[in-house]
Amino acid sequence: MPRPIARVLTLLELLQSGGIRTVPELADRLGVDERTVRRYAGHLIDLDVPVESVRGRYGGYRLAPGYRMPPLMLNDDEALAVLLGLVAGRRSGLTTAMGTAGETAAAKIRRVLPERLRAGLDAVLATLAFTAPPGEAGPPDSAVLLPIADAVTRHRPVSIRYTAADGRRSERTLHPHGIVAHSGRWYVTAADPAIGEDRTFRLDRISGVRTLPGSFEPPAGVDPAKRVLTGLATAPYRHEVTLRVQGTAEQIHARLPAGIAIVEELPPPDDAGPVSGRWARVDLRVERLDWLPAVLASLDRPFVIERPDELRGLVEALAERLAASARRGRPLV
Length: 333
Known about the structure:
Blueprint: H1 3-16, H2 23-30, H3 34-46, E1 51-54, E2 60-63, H4 76-92, H5 101-111, H6 115-127, H7 142-154, E3 158-163, E4 169-182, E5 185-192, E6 197-202, E7 206-211, H8 224-233, E8 239-246, H9 249-253, E9 261-265, E10 279-286, H10 292-299, E11 303-307, H11 309-327
Antiparallel strand pairs: 1-2, 3-4, 3-7, 4-5, 5-6, 8-10, 8-11, 9-10
C-alpha cells in the first residue's frame, strides 16, 4: 500500500478513537506537516467519511455522526480481543445475540481481516480449550435488554410480561434500577410499585417490554449486584443452614460465594483475647447438604454448626472417613 494511502487510513483510525484531535497532534502522529494533515482530511471527506473541522483554540478534526459508519479498522490485538470476546461470551451465556448472530458477527470480522492475521486468529481459536463447560442459560433478547437498559439510564418505568419459574405469567410495571450478569444469566433489579417491594427478574423470562410515560426517582445507594446475590442466597430451598465461622467475610466468601451464603461479621465478645480471632455468622439456603462438609473442611477454620443437626452427622462422617484414610498404611510393593 502506498505510504500516503496508509497515512490516510491511519488518520481515520486516530479519528475513530473519539474526541477532537488537534492538527499538530495528528501531524506528529502521522509524521507529516500540518498542511498534509488537512489534505488527508480532505481525502476522507471525498470518500464520504463524515470528518468535521472544529475551529478555535482547541480545534482540530473529529468524526461527525453522519449518515454512514466509517470503515471498521482493527489492529492485531483489537481483532483478537473482539473474536475471543465473542467466543467466550457465547460459551459463558453472556452473549446477548440470539441464534447465530454471534457467529455471523465473527464471520464478518474475519472476512475483512488480512490473510496473515486471519490465519493467526484461526490458529488461536482452533487450539483454544476451556476448562468450564458451555453456559446453559438462554441469552436475553436485545429487544428486552436494550429498552430496559435505556429505562435504567433515564429512570423511566416499563411494562413487562414475565413468566415465573413455575410457568405463571403476569404483566407488571417496574421501576428498573440496574442490570446484573451473574453465572451466565442476566437479571434486572427493580421496584414493583404494585406491591411496594424491590424485586429481581431474569431477563430471559421477560417479553414484551414497553417504556411508559413519566419518570421515577431511583433510591440512593442502590447496589444492583449486591441485591441479586442476596436474593439468590435467600431464595427458598429445602435446608436452612446457620453456622458460626472464625474468619472474616472475605476469607469465608473464598469458599462460600456471596450468591450462596450471607456472611455477617460478629463483634468480638468483651472478654475476647487478642488471639481469639473474629467470628462471623453464615446463613445458607441449600437443596442438599452432602456437599457442605467438604467445603467447611476446605475453609480450614474453626466453625460451629447451629442448624440443622443433620449437617453435624455429615461432618462427623466425613471426618471419620478422612481419619480412616490417613491411618491406612502404604500399599506393599
